[in-house]
């Protein structure tokens, strides 16, 4: 089970320096318990996980993947959470961003391979055709580099999934603040190789976790119960 | 010159046998050649028939705009950073060998620091310098300043890459240049001094030109290495070849074919640089040998255009009756 452990509170490296912990790690372990399998969480760079699943390097990917139609062409998903994208800026002097169209003329930092990257790239061409100032998009290898770019002023705005943005703002102790409202609520999915038979058992295990309350307990532990779902599905992409 | 009498009559009556000379056989070489050919055939076969290489994807991106733009930035970074590195390296090496303890000491500290920290860390620090120094200004130390600039505007990502890679390369080049200077025999410097040449003049006109023969091969090595090290700039969002390829595959998930595209381009440029290094080395080797060895091109040309007379045949025995 692969995850990019730079995305607290969903997946990050614990205090021992090598274990992947977080909401995704806990859910993965719980799924393993239901299915009677041992889950080995490994850390990998975000944009290498889906290719790794396709090539057989990883069995599953649980790294806050947004279930999108584009990704469904390469892997199957079992949905387990909903999240939107939030903007966060520097507390003092940061711009007020309420939607994607406000990004024109700003320096934006995102992580490589995320839906935020494609969202901003689409917005950049919209800004250009509307005659507004260009977006200066900076794409980094991991979320930590995104945060560093924001705190050093390289970027005015950073974007990440809402639970992650909330957590970053909380942990920053006042350096960052959220801006505007989250947009584009979309389901998270556990990624697995296409049509290899894993989808049905994983879906059943997910339903079991929701039914007996362990799912809610894990979400409460990380403070992200706002994204809870009640009915997981296979390949539930909305866009 | 007389033959031993015992064989004299025999020689006249019986012409000497032709010496059957056959070339030395090398059975081991033939066996090894067969093994290598089989392995090579297997390699070509797997490259051609394994569908997972997706050579059609490789070919479709090979000459695409984004890849070529990335290649241009990579070559730009290599050239600029090597120029900075070589200039800085020469200055630092000469400082290291100077009699002035302040010069040699500060050079030592520079080399120690820039060789002692990872290049990646140096790149990240230059890129995020605004975290430590949001504003950079020019002025009197501890006093008023005249020009102030926002660090992020002053140091763009590509400027950060050039600074990081160039300054780091300077530290490594200084050791290569120092090795070259040390390789020039001491007598040269002494003779120059005896002629009354100043130290600076000696260094510029006598020592450094002779040191070039030893400096060029490792410098060629460093240049080829810098071509690849420039890919580290991808972590500070400089759109060089590797980053350009990463951005493409982060969207279409064709990781391996695109990495093959990047690798092929790196190989092509490395080959060009290797040939260039060969000719630069030849230029600096003038005077070291009476005649420079032929270049591969000259050898091929000579092979194709020289026609030899057939070798002389076996020595014929003296015909009967002619006698001595």
Structure description:
The complex is a heterodimer of chains A (239) and B (324). With 239 residues, chain A is an alpha/beta fold. Chain A has 2 domains: 2-83 and 185-227, D-Maltodextrin-Binding Protein, domain 2 (3-Layer(aba) Sandwich); 84-184, Periplasmic binding protein-like II (D-Maltodextrin-Binding Protein, domain 2, 3-Layer(aba) Sandwich), CATH 3.40.190.10. Helices cover 35% and strands 25% of the residues of chain A. Chain A contains 8 helices and 10 strands. Chain A has helices spanning 23-35, 46-55, 69-72, 115-129, 143-151, 162-171, 199-211, 214-222, and strands spanning 2-3, 6-7, 11-13, 20-21, 42-43, 75-90, 107-111, 136-140, 157-161, 176-193. In chain A, the strands form 3 sheets. In chain A, strands 8-7-9-6-10 form a 5-stranded mixed sheet, with helices on both faces. Chain A has a 3-stranded antiparallel sheet with strand order 2-3-4, covered by helices on one side. In chain A, strands 1-5 form a two-stranded parallel sheet. The longest helix of chain A has 15 residues, at 115-129. The radius of gyration of chain A is 18 Å and the shape is globular. The mean pLDDT of chain A is 89. Chain B is mainly alpha-helical and 324 residues long. Chain B has a domain at 54-137 and 146-285: Orthogonal Bundle (MetI-like fold), CATH 1.10.3720. Chain B has helices at residues 5-13, 27-49, 55-62, 65-96, 101-116, 119-127, 129-132, 151-154, 157-183, 186-194, 199-229, 241-252, 255-284, 296-305; strands at residues 135-139, 145-150. In chain B, strands 1-2 form a two-stranded antiparallel sheet. Chain B starts with a helix and ends in a 19-residue tail after the last helix. The relative contact order of chain B is 0.11. The mean pLDDT of chain B is 88. Classes of the chains: A alpha/beta (239), B mainly alpha (324). Chain A binds chain B through residues 47-48, 50-51, 54, 74, 112-113, 117-118, 138-141, 145, 148-149, 151-154, and chain B through 127-131, 134, 150-152, 157, 234-235, 237, 246-247, 249-251, 253, 255-256.
